[in-house]
Amino acid sequence: MISSISNQQLKEITKLQKQPKYRRASSLFIAEGFKMVKEAAEKGCLVKTYISELVLGKKQESLEWLLKEFPYETVSGQVFRQLSDTVTTQGILGVVKQPSYNIKDILDDKKHIWLMLDDIRDPGNLGTIMRTAEGAGLSAVIMGKGTADLFNPKTVRSTMGSIFRMPFIYVDDITEIIKQIKDNGYSVYGTAMAGSIAYDKADYTKGAGIVIGNEANGIQERVLECITGSIHIPMDGKLESLNAAVAAAVVMYEAARQRRGKIIR
Amino acid sequence: MISSISNQQLKEITKLQKQPKYRRASSLFIAEGFKMVKEAAEKGCLVKTYISELVLGKKQESLEWLLKEFPYETVSGQVFRQLSDTVTTQGILGVVKQPSYNIKDILDDKKHIWLMLDDIRDPGNLGTIMRTAEGAGLSAVIMGKGTADLFNPKTVRSTMGSIFRMPFIYVDDITEIIKQIKDNGYSVYGTAMAGSIAYDKADYTKGAGIVIGNEANGIQERVLECITGSIHIPMDGKLESLNAAVAAAVVMYEAARQRRGKIIR
Predict the structure, then answer these.
(1) How many angstroms away from the CA of A258 is the closest CA of chain B?
(2) Which residues of B touch A241 (CB under 8 A)?
(3) Which helix (H) or strand (E) holds B9?
(4) pTM of the entire structure?
């Protein structure tokens, strides 16, 4: 049993929690909690489980399977609490391989509806957007370079498991992908304060790309220049903007609403 | 100039930031940042401004008005940073009176569309919901007893000023309000995992109440029993639920979409 936080393996975990560069270099990340570790295992991404002695004592059916099939280490209760990134820990975390997808598969997806994030900075927003994208039935989430790190512990947590189910990709230049989607025959709409049409007047039934911009500055000028058209979400009162995850949700669910029962594949 | 964090006034501010009970007893709260303090002033809720010496140096037109019209104290730069609840402070905060509304005005509102929160616990979700409710043009946000404290610094921040513009009320028993809204002739829909109709099949054009439940457990049984009907948000993939602020946004914006151009007042 590991009973010191300065154990080499635990130091590794802390690095994976705190250092984006180290996550990128190793292509690993940390997933906390039962459901997340189980999903990682089912997806074939689980490398190793770390479990608190306090949890190991309580027999659980799904846990038995996990510990039989994958390598694990036991950690003392006190040390696990120090290790955990959450306030109330479930006493289990996994070192997990980052899922990866290729752009060809993503663009070939039959649902042909893509969310593109141009510089979303808030880790919680990003996780919530991934979660909503799964619910709204999107093909993939395509992220421009400035976008937050999906493998940040806070982001991982707020995806509620969508990180293992929703295809995603980081791209160097989002305008290249927008051009490809347009060349493939789909419209690409970007949300903007003064978008020329209301978001619900755009047609998503034949497939589409949806671009959401940065929380404070919206979509970059160079990205706006290459989209099919801009859309706005009507706002009452004196509000300047909606939360980015909310704006993404409103547009994705309008697309889903239009497409229910009339998707052309 | 105040140059010690143990100054009595600053202790008071810290109590207002950290103690929900103290906020309730005093009917005060702390609003941080230029826009928020300005909104508080315009709304007639500002009691006193605290400003960092570093900000006072930089002349700003809107700041001059604020400092001429309302009492203020200067705080040393270092102490202000300790005082601030944010990572990158703007160097200004206000002690602010809590806005208050009465249930009669709320139920008489001409837009006649109300959001009811049954036990939303996450402060960030609550703030985002207030912000979206303003954007979607709701009458008010009505909160049941277990709902998070709107005057928590994190919640205040995530309302982005809606806390000064969006009517709201805490009620002891949300079922009483639901009954009143129904007695006044409006339907009340509650989001549930197995809601009987899709959220976009409900009719919001004649006015309606919308109930959103707790993040983990949904709407309480006793609340479900008194609503007109339950609605669900269709979900693709293996997702168990949407984030509560996202679910609220999707339903509120569907109501707004239906009502644009055909609101019956």
Answers:
(1) 10
(2) 160
(3) helix B8-18
(4) 0.95
pLDDT at B139 over 60: yes
| Environment class of A229 (CB within 10 Å of its CB; exposed 0-12, middle 13-18, buried 19+) | middle
Q: Spell out which residues of chain A touch residue B257, defining contact as CB-CB under 8 Å.
A: 200, 254
CB B237 within 8 A of CB A162: yes
- Report the chain A residue with the minimal C-alpha distance to residue B248: A246
Contact B111, B138 (CB under 8 A): yes
Nearest chain A residue to B167, by CA: A237
The one-letter amino acid at B104: K
Measured distance CA(B144)–CA(A161) in Å, rounded: 30
Say if the Cβ atoms of A137 and B254 lie within 8 Å.
Answer: no
> pLDDT tens across B179-229, in order?
999 999 999 999 998 878 999 999 999 999 999 999 999 999 999 999 999
- Residue-wise pLDDT tens digits, B58-75: 767 778 888 999 999 999
Q: Give the number of other CB atoms < 10 A from CB of residue B74.
A: 17
Nearest chain B residue (CA) to A160 = B239
B46-52 and B92-97 strand pairing: antiparallel
Q: Sheet harboring A46-52: ordered strands across?
A: A28-32, A92-97, A46-52, A72-75
Of the candidates A158, A200, A246, the beta carbon closest to that of B249 is on A246
DSSP tag of A71:
-
Better-scored residue on pLDDT, A65 or B138: B138
Q: List the single residue in A with minimal CA-CA distance to B235.
A: A135
- Which amino acid type is present at position A187? S
CB A113 within 8 A of CB A138: yes
Q: Where are the alpha helices (DSSP H) in chain A?
A: 8-18, 20-26, 34-43, 53-57, 61-69, 77-83, 103-108, 123-135, 153-159, 174-183, 221-224, 244-259
Cβ within 8 Å, pair A250-B253: yes
The answer to whether the complex's ipTM is over 0.85 is yes
Query: Which residue, among A42, A110, A236, A259, would best test binding to B if mutated, counting the most B CBs under 10 Å from its CB?
Result: A236
Grade residue B145 by pLDDT with cuts at 50, 70 and 90.
Answer: confident
